[in-house]
Write a structure and sequence with these properties.
single chain, 9 strands, two-stranded antiparallel sheet, alpha/beta, about 35% helix
């Protein structure tokens, strides 16, 4: 489902400029990576505020992510595809069941997934149960990823979105994969993931 749902010259222009900017910023940032695993088929989980820089960190891994079917979502979908992601289009209001099943099918095939567990609308840094449900149904581990940027603009948005700036430093820390058994309580594992993400989000670089 990588075909555009909405198409306009503005969608093409904005996504291309975004790709060029994030690529340049990533290339000029000194990135320190810690505990990066060699397990390909996991569900990457990072806070929504770190989404822009994570596109660079996880580029080219053939990861599938959920993106809204809206016109605004088209910008994000095109940007993700430019970084080598696959997109599944859906939301809580339209295409939810179908999109979740498609993510489960891809996970069961051993393809990596990525979720911002406090997205798309928050509350900030509160893990929703969707990512845990995906892990339970696919058998994949959830891999927490924490990020800290030295050079950024922090927006006054619900997630305090971090816009990365070039020529800085970044710390990217991976936690231990979290497995979800069939009989595990979703709220318990969501709390475990939330604690893990907060623990590995670096306080300094």
């Amino acid at each position: 489902m990588n075909e555009p749902i909405h198409s306009s010259p503005l969608h093409s222009l904005v996504s291309t400029l975004g790709y060029l900017y994030i690529s340049f910023t990533g290339a000029t940032t000194r990135i320190r990576t810690q505990n990066q695993p060699q397990v390909p088929n996991v569900i990457y989980a990072s806070w929504h505020s770190h989404l822009a820089f994570m596109l660079y960190v996880l580029r080219g891994k053939d990861i599938s992510g959920l993106v809204s079917r809206s016109k605004d979502g088209e910008y994000a979908a095109r940007l993700l595809r430019k970084f080598g992601f696959n997109t599944v289009r859906g939301s809580t209001s339209r295409g939810a069941a179908q999109s979740v099943m498609e993510l489960i099918d891809r996970g069961r095939l051993g393809l990596p997934l990525a979720i911002t567990p406090d997205g798309p609308k928050g509350p900030r840094r509160k893990v929703q149960q969707g990512v845990v449900y995906l892990a339970q149904k696919t058998g994949m581990g959830i891999l927490p990823v924490g990020v800290r940027l030295s050079n950024k603009i922090t927006f006054n948005s619900w997630d305090n979105f971090e816009f990365p700036l070039p020529f800085g430093k970044a710390a990217v820390i991976y936690g231990a994969p979290i497995k979800v058994a069939e009989n595990d309580r979703l709220e318990t594992k969501a709390a475990e993931l939330e604690e893990a993400l907060n623990a590995i989000t670096p306080s300094s670089i």
